[in-house]
Amino acid sequence: MEKVKVFLSDPQVLFREGIHFILSGEDDFEVIGETTSNQEAFTLIETNPPNIAILSMQDAKTSGAEITRRIKRNFPSISVILTLDKKDEEQLFAAIKSGASACITKDTDPEFLLDIIRVVAQGSYPIMEEILLPGLASMVLAEFEELTAVNEQIDNLLGSLTPKETQVLTTIAAGNTIEQVAEKLDITEETIRRNLRLVLNKLVSNEQARALIEAAQRGLPAIIAGAGKRAGKADDYVTKAEFNEFKDTLMERLKSFIGELT
């Protein structure tokens, strides 16, 4: 059986070596590299891509969420597990949107760690279970509400919640367990998880698309200035036709990008 290739990155050397030691005792895993920083991790992953990258959410220069987004853009097949010092809803939400498959705390039991890695290696997303927490369900609802106005300005290219997904999230946010949600909405727990998986996909897709939009906005002044120079105009001037051409090009790139993510 082919071994699951794992890359490790954590600034706490003892913790990272602890994971390495645990994995070295298993026949189905192979640690192919490790480092102390997420930025260096990305460089090494580019050279020798693993099946799974276990990275630190807390990094002095590049957060776990940021490096996960970069990995998922460039290597969609690599699964990412992020480690946290402790459970924190803000960090969990950032991890969910980044495309991470799972989050674990640094006091995780070794057997549970192995179970999580094996489940992730099979293509599952244990991180989806975090959306069953009322606080995180509320954050998800707020996220989609915040994007409503933005979405209208870009021809509704971003994912939005269906009525059923909204209903499921609202019921979870009210403090109900998955069993209670199933009973109140008269649906199965499997249906609830299927809806949450769709919500998870939309969150990740929207986050990547929003990063592209923000990057385009930051680069717009330079693009406009460049267009003005090429046309022999002042640097701070661009015609309406040139701006519309830029906007249309951006929209096409965004549509293509979102299509690849969904």
Description:
- Helix content is 60%, strand content 11%.
- The protein has 262 residues and is of the alpha/beta class.
- It folds into two domains: 4-129, Rossmann fold (3-Layer(aba) Sandwich), CATH 3.40.50.2300; 134-261, no CATH class.
- It has a five-stranded parallel β-sheet with strand order 2-1-3-4-5, sandwiched between helices.
- Helix 9 packs antiparallel against helix 10 (240-261).
- It is globular and about 50 Å long.
- It starts with a strand and ends with a helix.
- 30% of the residues are buried.
- The model has no long low-confidence stretch (mean pLDDT 86).
Can you describe this structure in just a few lines?
Helix content is 60%, strand content 11%.
Let me know the number of strands. Answer: 5
Classification by helices and strands: alpha/beta
Helical element count? 10
Strand arrangement in the largest pleated sheet: 2-1-3-4-5
Proportion in β-strands:
5-15%
The residue ranges in which pLDDT falls below 50 over 5 or more consecutive positions are: none
Chain-wise SSE layout:
Layout: E1 4-9, H1 13-24, E2 29-35, H2 38-47, E3 52-56, H3 64-74, E4 79-84, H4 89-98, E5 102-105, H5 110-121, H6 134-153, H7 163-173, H8 178-185, H9 189-230, H10 240-261
Parallel strand pairs: 1-2, 1-3, 3-4, 4-5
Helix pairs in contact: 3-4, 4-6, 6-7, 7-8, 7-9, 9-10
Features:
5-stranded parallel beta sheet; alpha/beta; 10 helices; 5 strands; globular; 60% helix; single chain; Rossmann fold; 262 residues
